[in-house]
Description:
Order of helices and strands: HH
Largest sheet: none
Distance between the termini: 75 Å
Structural class: mainly alpha
Strand content: under 5%
Helix content: over 70%
Number of helices: 2
Amino acid sequence: MALIHAFIASVRRDDEGQGLAEYALILALIAIVAIVALLFLGGQISTILSNVGASI
């Protein structure tokens, strides 16, 4: 009986933590890319939005 419990425990490993860590890393990478893009393109985006707002 103990052998069956050991087999079930080995098959049913908890891999949710690994998946959650991978999603967190992807989210952090996307956030870094977005921040860098805003730093470099912020002035141009602001000008475009101002022109659109003025034309409306």
